[in-house]
From TrEMBL:
Region Disordered, residue ranges: 1-21, 35-55, 153-240
Name of the molecule in the record: TilB homolog
Domain called Dynein axonemal assembly factor 11-like CS: residue spans: 31-152
Biased composition (Acidic residues): 228-240
Compositional bias of kind Basic residues: 155-166
Pfam families with a match to the protein in the record: CS_DNAAF11_C (PF23602)
Compositional bias per record (Basic and acidic residues), positions renumbered to this chain: 187-211
Amino acid sequence: NGGPRVENESNNEEDDASFWQEQVEYTPESRIEVHKHMEEKRREKEQTDKRTEKTPKEVKFFAKDGRPLNINQGKLDFNFTDDEENNSFLFDLACPKYLDTSLINVDLQTTYVRVTVKGKIMQLALPEEIKPDSSKAQRSQVTGHLLLTMPKLKGIVKPKNTKAKQHKEQKTNDSGRNNARNPTAKLEVDPSVRHEVDFGNIVREKSRRSQDAPQRTEQTCVDKEQSEDFVDDPDVPPLI
């Protein structure tokens, strides 16, 4: 039985191919040489991979015309909203809940927003220019999300609750018209007619009236004597 033989001086692909094609006796020594050759190739591959990792891939943040590009290295979910009522943009980035805030870096520019989360870059191009100095960043303690509020550089802030305000004004005007149509008449009392009530006089007046009232007399019933023409009829029931 034949087997491959190791040549320690072979460092290129041609030498490696010739090593595996050469026939040798299948002995314990040949098996040891094959094992050494495979171990050497494995180490060379690990060193090559380490050199590749140390040289990170260059990230392009802008196109050739200077336009900012959209980048999401961390594959994070996000929500971008145009808040027309407050004339601003809202950017909600789903950062990990238990990630320390010190590992989050925010860079706001007039045309783009860049957030670095644990070394991973998230960049988003904005449709309009913003005011970086007036923007604010908030972190939710419940979900861990990062919310960026970015006011627009141009635009007019729309008034809030316009319909409710118009409805309130219309209701006030209707109420005023109803009061004009149905005026309420109030009775005015002449101040000279007013007098204070003396509760002491009320008690004395009541006592005086009680004395002037006629006294009730009690009457008692007295049996009258029967007349001579009285006839006692047994069929008539007695009077009670």
